[in-house]
Amino acid sequence: MNKYEAVIILNPNLSTKVDDFLKDFEKLLKDNSFSIVKTEDIGRRQLAYSINNHNKGHYIIFNLEGDPSKLLEIETKIKYNESIIRHLFLVVKKHSDEDSSLFIESKNKKSEPANDDVKVEKVETKEIKADDSANKKGEV
Question: pLDDT digit string (tens) for 92-102?
Fold first, then answer.
């Protein structure tokens, strides 16, 4: 049994159907003798570059364990899934017990209170009048 990390980027228009995708993906993994150790639903994020005319994507990170001979079959099946705009499987020596930095960042953004109060500072302005004689000479 090898250990893997999988990053799946879903079509952002399907963010409401993430639960359905997770159920289907878990079934696909179990059918191919893979087990999910950990799942992190990062949420919608800005992409570094446009993929299939999408500027955002819904990120999900999985820690997996399974048979390396079945990995190619899984990748072949998800390649034709229209809801996935990008995927990546990485072999790792051991799974980290800590949350990923993306997951921590997404939790922090969700927990920050929305500050709708806009602070407006009044700036004093002084009107400066030029001397008429200075204007005639070209000096200001």
Answer: 988 777 776 67
> For residues 68 and 76, is the Cβ–Cβ distance under 8 A?
no
Within-domain flag for 10: yes
Strands (E), 25-132: 35-51, 54-66, 84-92
* 32 is a domain residue: yes
Place of tokens 């997996």: 64
pLDDT, tens digit (0-9, with 9 covering 90-100), for 17-38? 888 999 999 999 999 999 999 9
Domain count, the chain: 1
Q: What is the CATH number of the domain that holds 63?
A: 3.30.70.60
67: containing domain: 2-101
What distance in Å separates the CA atoms of residue 56 and residue 90, rounded to the nearest whole number? 22
* Residue 62 within any structural domain of the chain: yes
Measured CA to CA, the distance from residue 2 to residue 50 in angstroms comes to 32
- C-alpha 130/C-alpha 133 separation (Å) is 9
109-118's contacts with Cβ under 8 Å and 24+ in sequence apart are 110/43
Residue 113 lies in a domain: no
Tell me the β-bridge partners of 36: 64
